[in-house]
Amino acid sequence: MRIGADFLPRACSALVLAPIVLLVAGWGGWAFGILATLAALIILWEWLRMIAAKPNTVLLVIGGAALVVAVMMLAIRPPHMAMAIVILGAVATALIARGGRERRLWAPFGLVYAGALALPAVILRGDATFGLISLIWLLAVVWSTDIAAYFCGRLIGGPKLWPRVSPNKTWSGAIGGTLFGMVAGMVTLYAAGVHSILLAAPVALLASVASQGGDLFESSMKRRFGVKDSSALIPGHGGLMDRLDGFIAAAALALLIGLLRDPDAPARGLLLW
C-alpha cells in the first residue's frame, strides 16, 4: 500500500486538533459553545474567501453577528429560533452581496453552512443526559469513516467514486469507510452503555454516508471556484473547512433525525431506538 504525500500533514493536524476538541467537548457548557462558534466563524470566512464574495468584510461581520446571536439564543430559546436567525442573516447577506451572479448566489449559503456546524454541535451537546455521548458518537463515526476510506482506498483501489470532483476517492474507500463508520458508532454506544446498538446502526451508516457526501460537496465547491484549499489556516494542509466538511454534513443530518424523533431532546432521539 502506498501512503500519499498528504498522510503526514493529515495525521499531524489530527493529533493536534482531536485532543483539543475532545477536551472541550467533555467540558461542555460555554467553553464548547465558544469553540463551536469560533470554528463556525472561521468556516464562514473561508467560504467567503473561497468564492471571493464582496464586500467580504461586511458580509463576514453580518454573518458572524448572526452566528454569535444564534448560538447565544440556544441558551434561552428553542432551536428553531436560532435557526431562524441564521436564515435571516443569510437573507441579509444575499441582499448585500455584490460581484458576479454566481458569487452573489453562493454567498448566503456560507452562513447556512457555518450554522450547520455550530448549531447541531451545540444543540446535541446541550442534552444533559446524552449530549456528550451523541457528540463522541458523531466524532467517532466521522473520523472512522475518513480514516477507513483513506486506507481502504489505498489498499484495495478499484473504480473511482467521482473522478471529476475528487480523483483520488474510490468505491472501495467509500464502502470501507461506511462500514467502519457504522461499526465505530455501534462500539461507541456499547461503551457508553446505550442498549440500542443494533437499532441505531442504520443511523450511523447514514451519518457515515453523509460525512462522505459532505467531503465531496466541498471538493466540488473548490473545483467550481478554482481553489486548491479553503484557506492556509492549518500549515501544510489547507483550511478548517477541509477538515470539517464531513462533520458538518453528518452533524446536520444527526440533528435533523434527533429533532424529528424527539424535539425536546434531540440527542436522545438520535441515539435511543
From TrEMBL:
Does the record carry Lipid metabolism as a key word? Answer: yes
EC number in record:
2.7.7.41
Provide the topology term for how it sits in the membrane: Multi-pass membrane protein
Q: In which pathway does it act?
A: Phospholipid metabolism; CDP-diacylglycerol biosynthesis; CDP-diacylglycerol from sn-glycerol 3-phosphate: step 3/3; Lipid metabolism
Give the main localization category.
membrane
List membrane-spanning regions. 20-45, 57-75, 81-98, 105-124, 130-151, 171-191
Enzyme class, first EC level, given as a word:
transferase
* BP terms from Gene Ontology: CDP-diacylglycerol biosynthetic process
Highest taxon of the source? Bacteria
The record's subcellular locations are: Cell membrane
- From the UniProt record, list the reaction(s) this protein catalyses: a 1,2-diacyl-sn-glycero-3-phosphate + CTP + H(+) = a CDP-1,2-diacyl-sn-glycerol + diphosphate
What the entry lists under PANTHER family is as follows:
PHOSPHATIDATE CYTIDYLYLTRANSFERASE (PTHR46382:SF1)
Q: Which family does it belong to?
A: Belongs to the CDS family.
What is the official name of this protein in its record?
A: Phosphatidate cytidylyltransferase
